[in-house]
Amino acid sequence: SIEDTDIVLWYVFGLHHITRPEDWPVMPADIVSFQLKPAGFFDRNPALDLPPSPPAHR
């Protein structure tokens, strides 16, 4: 619920892609449009459901 919550909206306009944590490591291409995208909502890209790497042996 967003009741009694301050909503903050940042309007960003530019010619460069502003990267977000959700973009790494797969960088999508952005087009000219208007979109509301959360920034920093996830710690990482939720589309990547990979198990952690095993520890490196030296």
Structure description:
The protein is mostly loops. It has one domain. The protein is 0% helix and 0% strand. The chain has no helix or strand. It is flat. The termini are far apart. The model has no long low-confidence stretch (mean pLDDT 76).
Task: Please specify the SSE layout and strand pairing.
Elements: no helix or strand
Describe this protein with a few key phrases.
little secondary structure; 58 residues; 0% helix
Q: What integer is the average pLDDT? A: 76
How many individual domains?
1
The helix fraction, in percent, is under 10%
Give the CA-CA distance, first to last residue.
Answer: 50 Å
Give a concise summary.
With 58 residues, the chain is low in regular secondary structure. It has no helices and no strands.
